[in-house]
Amino acid sequence: MYDFAIIGGGIIGLSTAMTLGQTYPRAKIVVLEKESQWAFHQTGHNSGVIHSGVYYKPGGFKARFCRAGNQSMVAFCQQHNIDYNICGKVLVAVEESELPLLENLYQRGLKNDLNVSKISPAQVKEIEPHVRCIAGLHVPSTGIVNYRQVSQKYADLIRLQGGELYLNTKVVKIVSTTNSEVLETTQGEFATRFIINCAGLHSDRVAKLGKAKPNAKIVPFRGEYYELKPEKRYLVNTLIYPVPNPDFPFLGVHFTKMIDGSVHAGPNAVLSLKREGYQKTDFNLRDFVEVMTYPGFWRLAAKHSDEGIQEIIRSFSKEAFARSLQRLIPEVQAEDLVPTHAGVRAQALKNNGKLVDDFLIVSNKNSVHVCNAPSPAATSSIEIGKAIVDKIVGRDLAQTSTIQKTPADVP
Ligand SMILES: Cc1cc2nc3c(=O)[nH]c(=O)nc-3n(C[C@H](O)[C@H](O)[C@H](O)COP(=O)(O)OP(=O)(O)OC[C@H]3O[C@@H](n4cnc5c(N)ncnc54)[C@H](O)[C@@H]3O)c2cc1C
């Protein structure tokens, strides 16, 4: 019998298990992951940015967790010798109509207590000589890291704390009994007193298995990237972002210097016909039917059909992708771009057609379900892990003998 079973070995599941182990050193903790590696899905396919928190609504979870997460991620990397680089980023307006949006972002940055400054096109050029813009913001606290490495370190620490980690173990059913929750998996049964669902692209389905009601469905949005040819890397020193469309939670295609020195451009945001569909041709009937029969999707599509069509064109046309990038760096040519990895975002969508903007964590009797953890959740992973543990602390369950904090454990 376990005290805590965490479903999903992405950065959120692993961070939660690590924090639970630190909070309850005597608890029996298990992490169940269906793939053969940790961080196989969203966490292993992202941009690797340690976000600062400029974009997010002041007071919301994203704003608070990202700001704190930026610092805790850097501290974690320092403590565990993980390569990172706080290189800062520029956000630039390229036409007059974007100036009010840039001003809004500046104000948001200030409200979120960040060090953000307005910079002139000449100052932008000092940081990024190849960018053409009419105004910019500089956010020095943004950085880069490899989140697979961070996740692997979380897994190592869980093991050191005595936690158990199972790969190739997919949870297929949850059965509640009088004194436990039984997880039926592809590797047999695991009985636990408490479940934490961190299943990312499948979090709504796992929530349903656990009889929780997130009131939202996961809709997968693929983000495709190109890489600049090595001889063109000189065009980008740090991170270069456009002013994003305020109606979407995505940041617009941008340039990211990766921690390995390569430069990635993207990601776009196209509806994926498979939840874990990394190729344009990937298709899964169940995933497709679920989206197509969900009224929320059609409400969203009706409102944003133009943007959706533009995204599809940009997905299939390298020239169209290059044109988006040329708004930031006119020298970039389609032939400088080589297709590279893609990632699929788990974005929760409500029945009314509204994308869930903030992180969404739903509690049930013996479970907690992370139902929306898109970007900047990797940056915020330590803080989200702490928030989940805070939801558990104080429950009756946490008072029982095995997992009770000893006086020495209490911070
Ligand atoms: C293209 C892209 C770019 C991004 N860029 C950034 C960025 O630069 N900075 C940032 O902070 N964030 C970024 N994000 C967001 C960030 O990557 C995610 O928010 C974060 O990785 C979510 O972690 P997770 O653990 O919730 O999900 P995941 O990493 O997807 O992990 C969920 C895990 O659950 C497992 N699972 C699912 N169902 C089951 C089951 N039934 N049984 C067992 N296991 C199961 C899956 O196999 C998976 O490993 C980006 C995301 C994408 C897609």
Describe the structure.
The structure is a single chain. The strands form 3 sheets. Strands 5, 6, 7, 13, 14, 15, 16, 17 and 18 form a 9-stranded mixed beta sheet that branches. This protein has about 400 residues and is of the alpha+beta class. The protein is built from 11 helices and 20 strands. It is globular. Helix 1 (about 10-25) packs parallel to helix 5, helix 1 crosses helix 11 and helix 9 (about 305-315) crosses helix 10. Flavin-adenine dinucleotide binds near residues 11, 42 and 343.
Instruction: Give the bound compounds.
Output: flavin-adenine dinucleotide
Task: Return the structural class.
Answer: alpha+beta
Beta fraction:
25-35%
Cα gyration radius (Å) = 21 Å
Average pLDDT confidence is: 94
Helix share of residues? 25-40%
Question: Unreliable stretches, pLDDT < 50, 5 or more residues?
Answer: 405-411
Q: What composes the largest sheet?
A: 9 strands, mixed
Shape: globular
Number of strands: 20
Helix count, DSSP H or I runs of 4 or more residues: 11
Task: Report, as a whole number of angstroms, the end-to-end distance.
Answer: 27 Å
Features:
eight-stranded mixed sheet; alpha+beta; single chain; binds flavin-adenine dinucleotide; disordered C terminus; nine-stranded mixed sheet; 11 helices
Q: TL;DR?
A:
The chain is built from 11 helices and 20 strands.
Task: Record the SSE blueprint.
Layout: E1 2-7, H1 11-23, E2 29-32, E3 49-50, H2 61-79, E4 84-85, E5 89-93, H3 99-111, E6 117-119, H4 121-127, E7 135-139, E8 143-145, H5 147-160, E9 164-166, E10 171-176, E11 181-185, E12 188-197, H6 203-209, E13 217-228, E14 239-242, E15 254-257, E16 263-266, E17 270-271, H7 285-292, H8 295-303, H9 305-316, H10 318-326, E18 337-349, E19 360-364, E20 367-372, H11 381-392
Parallel strand pairs: 1-2, 1-12, 2-9, 5-14, 12-20
Antiparallel strand pairs: 3-8, 4-8, 5-7, 6-7, 10-11, 11-12, 13-16, 13-17, 13-18, 14-15, 15-16, 19-20
Helix pairs in contact: 1-5, 1-11, 2-11, 9-10
The protein binds flavin-adenine dinucleotide (FAD).
